Amino acid sequence: MRIDFATIGGIIAGLFVVGVAIALGGAISIFFNVPSLLIVIGGVVSATILRFPIGEVRAALNAGVRSAFFDHQRGPGELLEEVRSLAALARRQGPMALERAAASDPFLARGKQMIADGLSPDQLRAQLTRERDLEIERLIAGEKVFRAIGEAAPSFGLIGTVIGLVNMLSVMDDPSKIGPAMAVALLTTLYGALLAYVIALPIADKLAVKLEAQETNLSLIIDGLVQVAERRSPDAITDMLIVYLPQNARANFRTAAA
Fold first, then answer.
1. Most distant pair of Cα atoms in the chain: their distance
2. Distance (Å, rounded) from C-alpha 130 to C-alpha 124?
3. Residue ranges covered by each domain of the chain
4. For residue 28, how many other CB atoms are within 10 A of its CB?
5. Where are the alpha helices (DSSP H) in the chain?
6. Which residues have a Cβ under 8 Å from the Cβ of 21 and sit 6 or more positions away?
7. How far apart, in Å, are the Cα atoms of 22 and each of 16, 18, 50, 120, 161?
8. Would the pTM of this model clear 0.85, i.e. be above it?
9. pLDDT at 115 over 60
10. C-alpha 46: how far from its chain's center?
11. pLDDT: which is higher, 234 or 180
């Protein structure tokens, strides 16, 4: 499992740009305000657990963080090559030989073990399709939770701004209290925007992209392993599965596999 430096780098870059702008403008400490943080973070947490069951939030955050910050997906071309190797092995030595074969993808590893255990092609497809659907549901739940956080954060920033303005208007006769009230009013908007547009919504979009790629990979594995269980030749499997590859990669793959 590799760290997805694009996600981490994007978040760090966004926060760095804002931090540099703050540092160039003066004292950094004035941009830290506990009431504003409590309004945004507390509000986002409460709104999220109101919209989703607490267990689903925990599981979704865990799946979402793993998918967004760790790149454990292999390309469809690599998976197709592995399926070809398994097909060749099964035709030469029989399905039992797959038990000793290495597989880089956990889903592929489970599927080849099912073939070695004697599952029929129909049973294999049904079991793997069920596992694929559950995995996709977990990723969709993670995307929904992060998107909900991104939607709630600016709203609570606005709520904090209203609270700060009300406090400011109520102490207009005391100039010493106007500054702290205005800080709450403005900083909650800043915190809400940073949480939404630098962290939560980009992660939700990243999860949506990875979800599509993962669904493609899992579908390729299912179709490929069913063909392996039916003892199809590697070339016949390639003809069926090459549609999962990008158009510009198909000719190169056929040339390399020939």
1. 90
2. 10
3. 2-257
4. 10
5. 5-25, 34-37, 43-51, 54-69, 76-93, 106-116, 121-170, 175-194, 201-229, 234-241, 247-257
6. none
7. 10, 6, 34, 63, 19
8. no
9. yes
10. 22
11. 234
